[in-house]
Amino acid sequence: MRFFYFYKMKIEDLYQLYSIHGLVDTDTRNIRQNTIFFALKGENFNGNKFAEEAIDNGASYAVVDEEAYNTSEKTILVDNVLETLQKLANYHRNQLGLPIIALTGSNGKTTTKELINAVLSTKYKTTATVGNLNNHIGVPLTLLSMNRDTEIGIVEMGANHHKEIAFLSEIAGPDYGYITNFGSAHLEGFGSLEGVVKAKSELYEYLRKHNKKVIVNPNDAKQIEHTKGMDSVWFSNDIKYLDADPLVRFSYQEKIITSNLIGVYNFANISAAITIGNYFKVTPEQIKEAIENYIPSNNRSQVIKTERNTIILDAYNANPTSMKAALESFEALKSAHKTIIIGDMFELGEYSSKEHQKIADIVQEFNFNSVFLVGENFYKTTTEFKKFKNFTELAEYLKFNPINKSTILVKGSRGMALERVVEFC
Predict the structure, then answer these.
(1) Which of 46, 131, 352, 376 is the most buried (most CB within 10 A)?
(2) Are residues 101 and 70 in the same domain?
(3) Distance of alpha carbon 236 from alpha carbon 274, whole angstroms
(4) One domain, residues 114 and 68
C-alpha cells in the first residue's frame, strides 16, 4: 500500500494547512490558486475523480476519501470528505471566536439575511451566506469564508427534514438566532405544520442549551411561546409600519424610510434587521441608508416596469404560507388593474392537492382582473380561472393574448422558473 505523509490527517493538522492558504473549493470548474479542494460526493458525481484535475488547476491540496485517489504528496486521505469539511468549519469558527448570527425559517430567511448584512456592514466587517447556500455544505463553506478581519458572521440555515437545523447549529455555533416564521413549507419532509415548528425550533433549543441570545418578533405568537425564559431581544418599538403600495414604507425613530421591498410581509424582515442593527450600535442614520439602498435580486420581491406593465416578481420560491401572504398584500394595492400569474408549489407531498385548492379558493375571494394558474397541480384544481399545465402553454397564450396596462404579481416555486414570463409582459 502506498503511504504518504498526509494519510488520515488530524483536523488540527489540516487546519494548519488551511490557515496558510485560507481558501476552500469544492468545484474544479472554479478552482482558485493555492486553495484546498474537497472532493465531495453526490448521487451523480464523485469528487475524488477530480482531485488530480484540481491540483493541476492550481489547488495546493486535495482532500479525498478513497484510497485509489490518494496518489501524491498533495492529496490528503480522510475517512469522509464531507464530515472533514464540516469539522474543519467548526474548528475554524471556534478559532475565530467572533459573534455568529444564525437565522432560519419557512419564508424570508434569505431576504432577512441580506438585510441584516446590509445594516451591519455599515459599521462592521461582515461575512454572510452567499445566496441561499444554507445546507450541510453551504454552512461550512460560509464559515470557512470568514477570516481574522471578519467582525460579525451571518449564517443562513435551511432544512427540509428534522434534526437538520440542530446539526447545522452544532457546526455554526451561533451566539444569536432568529427564526423568520413558521409556515407550511417542505411539508413532504416535515409531515405537518407542527413538524415545521418543531424542526425550526431546533435553533431555539441550541440557543437555550448554550445560554445564547434570541431575536423575537412580538407579533408572532409561536416565537413568543417557544422562547419563554430565554435571553431575548424583542423588535424595537421605534419601528412603525406605514404602508406597502407597493414598496414597504415605515418610520424608525421619527425617520421616514422607504424600502425597495414589496409586500407587508417584508416589514417583519426589515424589522429584524433594524433590531439587530440597533443591538450592535448601528446608528439610525446608518440603518436608514442601508435599508433604502438595499435592492432585492434573484427574482425576490422585485418591481420591474416593462413598456406595457408593472411586474411584481416574487418567483424565487413559494409555499402555501408565502403564497397566501403575497396574494393578500397584492389585493391591498391601489392599482387600477391587477393580474396574477401563480405557479405550482413544490415539496408538499400528500398535502399538495389540498394546499393548491386552498390557494385557488383564496384567489376566488379576491377581485383580481385576470388570473392565470400554471403547473400540473394548479391545473387539477376546481376553478373557473385560466389554467395551464406548464409554462410553455402559458407563454403560447400570452403571445396572442397580451396583458396591457396592468400590475402583475408573478409567484411560484423555483422549479417553475416563472421569471420567464417577463419577456411576454
Answers:
(1) 352
(2) no
(3) 8
(4) no
86: its cell numbers: 464540516
Whether 4 shows a pLDDT value over 50: the answer reads no
Residues 333 and 285 in one domain: no
User: What is the number of domains present in the chain?
Assistant: 3
**What's the pLDDT band for 183 if we cut at 50, 70, 90?**
low
Distance CA 386, CA 384 (A): 7
- How many Å apart are CA 357 and CA 361, to the nearest integer? 6
Is it the case that residue 304 has pLDDT exceeding 80?
Answer: yes
- Whether 181 and 154 share a structural domain: yes
Binding residues for ATP: 105-111
CA–CA gap between residue 109 and residue 154 (Å, rounded): 11
Number of C-beta neighbours around residue 387 at 10 A: 18
Is 4 part of a structural domain of the chain? Answer: no
Among candidate residues 240, 263, 293, the one where a domain is terminated: 293
Lowest mean pLDDT among 35-39, 179-183, 350-354: 179-183
**41, 137: one domain:** no
Helical H segments across 121-252, by residue range:
138-144, 164-172, 187-190, 193-200, 202-209, 221-226
373 in Cβ contact with 385 (< 8 Å): yes
In degrees rounded to 5, what are phi and psi of residue 418?
A: -70, -10
Residue 92 in domain = no
Provide the annotated binding site: 105-111
Residue 197 — very low, low, confident or very high, per pLDDT cuts 50/70/90? confident
CA–CA separation, 344 and 194 (whole Å) = 23
Angle in degrees, 0-180, between the axes of helices 266-279 and 284-293, rounded to the nearest 10:
140
Residues 375 and 233 in one domain: no
CA distances from 150 to 97, 175, 281, 331 (A): 10, 15, 17, 43
Rg, the chain, Cα only? 23
Half-sphere exposure of 347 (CA within 13 A, CB side): 18
* CA-to-CA separations, 222 to 43, 107, 225, 392, 419, in angstroms, rounded: 37, 15, 5, 41, 33
For residues 186 and 258, state if they share a domain.
yes
Q: Which amino acid makes up residue 24?
A: V
Cell numbers given for 229: 425564559
* Average pLDDT of the chain to the nearest whole number: 92
Quote the domain boundaries for residue 15: 11-79
Does residue 301 surpass a pLDDT of 80? no
